[in-house]
Amino acid sequence: MVDAHLSPGKLLAVWSPAGSPGRTTVACSIATELTHSGNSVLLVDADTYAPSIDVYLGLNDHPAGLAAACRLISQDRFDISQLRRLSVELQTQSGSLTVMTGLSSSARWPEVSGQQIENLVQVARQHFDFVLLDAAANLEAETGLPQFAVQRNSVARWAVGNAEFVIAVCGSDPVAIARYLDASVSLAELKPIGQLLTLVNRLRTSVLGSSAKQQILETLSRLGQIQVSGFIPDDQVAADAAIKGAVPMVLARRSSQVKQAISLFTKVQILGQRNPLDGRLLKKPMAKLG
Question: Helix (H, G, I), strand (E, B), or coil: what is residue 171?
Fold first, then answer.
């Protein structure tokens, strides 16, 4: 665990193209897994198009969240006490996860800018080991919006461009893969300073056959020079249980292959941990799927 007084926390951006490949599900699960490793974690819904963490986690009665934080930042009144006041503490299996919910309506996007997100992250990194931003899909530079003081995509562009880890979520069907390849051009143009981790979600054999994993590996490598950092198997039972219980999917079915895959991805790719079981367990969640 990082000592926040000695070293600033790490910034993670969870991003995906449009098309609902499970970005928010992945963001909530990775944030939860980081808390299980003894880290303090802030999860921020920074999606200016389709904020949904409050709905996903069943946070019906929550503080004002991101919009209020950005308003205080513009007034130079934002600090860690305000951050905690505007966030929710969720108890997990072995700690607590701090969640800042997003905009109450996507129409309020002009209230949030990339500069304000940067200021929010600067405060958060002094008090949390990890800050996760659930970022919107659109990364294109915008033109033709003179009526607004900010650009709608500036938040996602800043998050992806400045995170130490960019977790890029790709679906596992042909349409999702085509979208990922197309959107990866905009991602590359930003020249992110951090490490790009492509995470293929909802891997199943029903669409691409028994060689699904190998087909995806070869397609992304051949058409986009993209290396895959991990696969998350499809588990509709766990997904439904997570929505029903309003909890991250890794808590819905703790013995599921999804839980194992996300846990190992988090430990190996983000925390840089290794142990004698990693090789065996890394194969286990995917052996039946590719």
Answer: coil
DSSP percent split of the chain into helix, strand, coil, nearest 5: 45, 15, 40
CA–CA separation, 222 vs 146, rounded Å? 40
- Strand (E) or helix (H) holding 260: helix 257-265
- Reduce the DSSP state of residue 15 to 3 states and report it: strand
Question: In this predicted model, which residue has the larger pLDDT, 204 or 275?
Answer: 204
Give me the phi and psi of 101, to 5 degrees please: -70, 165
* Cα–Cα distance, 83 to 78 (Å, whole number): 7
Q: What is the pLDDT of residue 255?
A: 81
Question: How sure is the predictor about 281, in pLDDT bands with cuts at 50, 70 and 90?
Answer: very low
Q: What's the angle, vertex CA 158, arms to CA 152 and CA 162, rounded to 5?
A: 170
Which helix (H) or strand (E) segment holds residue 200: the answer is strand 195-203
| Local structure of 287: helix, strand or coil | helix
Q: What is the pTM of this model?
A: 0.90
Return left, alpha or beta for 267; rule: phi > 0 is left, psi -120 to 50 is alpha, else beta.
Answer: alpha
SS3 180: helix
For residue 231, report the phi and psi dihedrals to the nearest 5 degrees: -125, 135
> Terminus-to-terminus CA distance in the chain, angstroms?
34
pLDDT of residue 146: 61
Burial 75-90 (b: 16+ CB within 10 A, else e): eeebeeeebeebbbeb
Q: Which of 226, 241, 238, 245 is nearest to 262 (CA)?
A: 238
Q: Which structure tokens are listed for 66? A: 């991101």
Closest CA to 289 of 231, 239, 217, 238: 231
